[in-house]
Each structure stands twice: as structure tokens, then as C-alpha cells.
Specification:
alpha/beta, Rossmann fold, 5-stranded mixed β-sheet
Length: about 250
Amino acid sequence: MSTPRDALALPPTVPAILTRLERDGGRPALTWYGPHGERVELSGAVLVNWVTKTTNLLVDELDTAPGTRVLLDLPAHWRTPVWALAAWRAGGSVLLATPDAAAGVDVVVTAQPDKHTTGADVVAVALPALARRWDGTLPPGALDAAASVMTYGDVLGVTPHVDASAPALVTREGTVPHADLVARAISALPVPGDGRVALRASGAPTTSLLQSLATWASGGSVVLVHPAAAPDADALDALLRAERVTTRVD
């Protein structure tokens, strides 16, 4: 059973949301329909496990801490919120890709590693459904995200204390500190997010990322649909019925 938004009896922080998701156990937290017919479903416990492993990698291998600028050069995809949540859990600042966003970043998480030559640490993310490694040759020094993440533990290691006043999200529209991140996310979701919420994975990931965070803060479950997975209205309606979606956000 979902938890109404006004019953969110926990601090409005990413760690608190992760605690709730883990407590939900086997209940679906994120369901992804990709462009090549793939369907990936992550329970709350599995999503948190991915975030935990990724946080450990960011902290232990890439020294992510408050003040670290992490560029997410990724499309709207199920892997994108994993990396964002992990960066926030480590206290880092997430930047979403813009033409000038690569300037001054410390870590680049990207599906296009060859285009990043800024001197930042580069993490290459394979986008096919459940890819376990990067398919191809990586630039010198780049990490293979899938292979590297799986080497890290399922228990969160020592993480830096999150500075609530430090930047959590940087977009074209401005900067959001950690203290305001969840409230900003909830304002991006125009409807209650305490059921099965369908989001369209199109364009820049900013909107779907914030709407996903708001849905989880409200006790809901995200169904993230790439346009190619449901190319017409009938296909989309059938998909939403099959997933028992209660709210659709276009």
C-alpha cells in the first residue's frame, strides 16, 4: 500500500527516501520500458542496492564528497536516477548535460565517453537493458560503470556528511541545495505521486528525474516509458493498463 504525500513522516532528504524504498522490500519502485522492447523492474530493495554499490564506487574510487561536481550526460533511463541518487547520497552536486556543463566538473557519467576530454574522471554507462560491461573499447582511464559497480559491497560504506546548504542539482534553471532538493522535486510533479506513476522518458532527463524523486518521496512507484516502447496511443494505453498505472504524467 502506498503512503499519502501528507503522511511523509521522515525528513525530506535523499537518505530518508532510500530508507523508505529499502523498507518497501519487494514492492516495485522503478519499472523501465526501453526503446528496444526491454522491460526492467527494480523493487525498492534492488534499487537501493544499486544506489548503495554506486555510492560506494563514487566515494571510494572517485573521492565524491560535498563539493564534488558530477555531470550526468545520460538520457532519461532507469540508470540515470541510480547515479543521481548515489551522487546525492555521497553529498555531491549533480549537473545535467548542457553545451557548457562539462567545464569544471570532477566526474562525468556518460553513455558517450569518447566525447569527454576535460580531464575529469569518466565513467562509461552502457544503456542496453541489463548490460554487465561496456561493449567496445573505452578511452584511456575511463571506468566501465556496469563492471565496476558490481565489485562494490551491498552495505553502504563510510560516506561524507551531506552539507544541506551545498548544491545538489545544477540545471539551466539554476541551482538547488540539498536542503531544498525533495521540495523542488515535489513541485515538479503536477499530480499526487503516491500510486503507480507513469512518466515519459523523452528529452532531457531533468523532469523525469525530479518527478521520480517526488514519486518515491510520496510513497509511489515509477513506470518510466521510452516513446519507442509505446509508439502510439493504443500501445501506450495497453502498457499502462498492464502496469496498473494510477497516474499518467505527459
